[in-house]
Amino acid sequence: MQYDPIKRETGKIFNCCKSARLLFYSLLNILLLRSWYVRKEVRNWARYAPAGAAILDAGSGFGQYIHFISRLNKDYTIKGIDVKDEEIENCRRFFVDNQKIIFEKADLNTFVEQEKFDLILCIDVLEHIADDVGVMKNLCASMKKGGLLLISTPSDRAGSEVHGKDGDSFIEEHVRDGYPVEEIESKLRQAGFSRTETIYSYGRPGQLSWKLSMKYPISMLNRGRAFYLVLPVYYMITLPFAMLLNFRDLRKKHNSGTGLIVKAVK
User: What are 92's strand-pairing partners?
Assistant: First the structure.
């Protein structure tokens, strides 16, 4: 089962114009439960953020979080980095009119900008990187004293069900299925962070929402791209249920879950 090819193809569909990309961002914010958690934590951070804060999206992808943050405060300076040329170029075209936002191709294994950022996002990135501690050290070095690193990543509690019945990975691009809480917090302290806080996301409501909004549609599209024609009808039926489940997951404290939201302070 392949996730990245479907993600790339879907992104291309919405690259035709700015209004289509804005619609894409809205859909990602609705469908992806991790986006609900990330936006909640960023809003909390923004209440106490310094004026003109510098922000890094480490693994910026489609740029949806940068778009969200740029709307919170126009004085923020924001940098997005990614290893994929296509994503960087698409984001540059979309954000071309905002001089406070820049994008750069960079590898997190080597990227360091000493003590520059007040907030760093690392959303669904570490599970793709073998030398995760090395990347954590680079991000810590790039952060100002007291700055916040916000991470979203799978936990070790089934890793967002990345394995199917045949044992193959649902998301083939991951180098690890997920983290135990103790492991990721230990690695962050090893990297130089002084304080960490971790909560589980994707509890039972979120796991069901993920199946409805992501797993089943991607499974269909892997069987044949003709299923793109069916998706609007599918989401008309399932979207209200997925949104309700996301809301319940966000509001509830979970003793376990297939995702982690980690906050680390330098």
Answer: none
